[in-house]
């Protein structure tokens, strides 16, 4: 988000106008006897917001407005904590007031006053707008709104000189090199992670658990290609894709459970790959039992897949939290994949049973790692 700002001072009333995105997003402000009043004008149809006290989404005190069913504007005070839906504040301090004039470009205009006066100068702000209409009951303050469009940024306001300082729009690789929206990035990231942790492991673990004797030495090559290259490779690619879209105004990445679990899975995947290599290199066709490093590879692999599945679900919940339309298709595919995996493994257990290479015929030559 980003900001504009306003007026100030002592006994006089000073109005200030600031258009960080000319003919698309403008902010007016003036002091009043009870506090300070602001007016927001936006060319988007979905929502428009301003945040106080921070140059990022972490810790910003936000006032957001959207058109309601009566063609008026619903205002909502939110507390931002990073890359998640800003939480509704228990105390709604923004008091709506009449808008004096509306520029021709504006599709959303609203004015509000707050009694609390800033005590620091200069103070940081964020502002943003989005084209998607909030979901849920748009007549209540609890409605959910999607990620902002390209009209957003940050600035500082100096109350002493009554001036804007350091106004800028944060940038990232994808925004400067393409027309990608953040929703498109989330969609691509989600599809890649769904394949990496819901589809590929079902096939890769099925092969390692049930098809060693059926496929012979080829089972290991297939398992390695699926788990080592597809799952780990897609995870790296999907994570990198999100980092390329990093916005400094959104705050730190690793603040949600989804991000923290994702980082854990990402790092442990390399340990799991290393265990697989060790188990392969130390494999002996004459062994009488399964060694500990093979079992460590099995159990770490199981834990990783479970964490991966849980994190895919948490990611889908974040998609819902942002109000994206891809939420329901993702959720349906998730449960279809879970039920499908249960049925597939049930069939494998009934048809083949788990196969360890210590049970393989003596003339079977293979170099493998057992993970399932």
Describe the fold and architecture:
The chain has 372 residues and is α+β, with helices and mostly antiparallel strands. It has helices at residues 173-177, 182-210, 212-215, 218-244, 257-281, 292-321, 327-351; strands at 15-21, 25-31, 36-42, 47-52, 58-67, 73-81, 87-88, 95-97, 108-114, 123-130, 152-158, 163-168. The strands form two sheets. A seven-stranded antiparallel sheet has the order 7-6-5-4-10-11-12, with no helix packed on it. It has a five-stranded antiparallel sheet with strand order 1-2-3-9-8, with no helix packed on it. The longest helix has 30 residues, at 292-321. Residues 1-13, 171-178 and 359-372 have low confidence and may be disordered.
List the defining traits of the structure above.
372 residues, alpha+beta, 7-stranded antiparallel beta sheet, 5-stranded antiparallel beta sheet, disordered N terminus, disordered C terminus
Brief write-up:
It contains seven helices and twelve strands.
Side by side, the strands of the main sheet go 7-6-5-4-10-11-12
Distance between the termini: 47 Å
Q: What are the segments in which pLDDT stays under 50 over at least 5 consecutive residues?
A: 1-13, 171-178, 359-372
- Number of DSSP E strands: 12
Radius of gyration: 27 Å
Tell me the number of helical segments per DSSP (H or I, 4 or more residues long): 7
Query: Structural class, from secondary structure content?
Result: alpha+beta
| Major β-sheet profile | 7 strands, antiparallel
- Output the helix-strand order: EEEEEEEEEEEEHHHHHHH
Averaged pLDDT: 80
Proportion in helices: 25-40%
DSSP strand content:
15-25%
Assign an overall shape. elongated
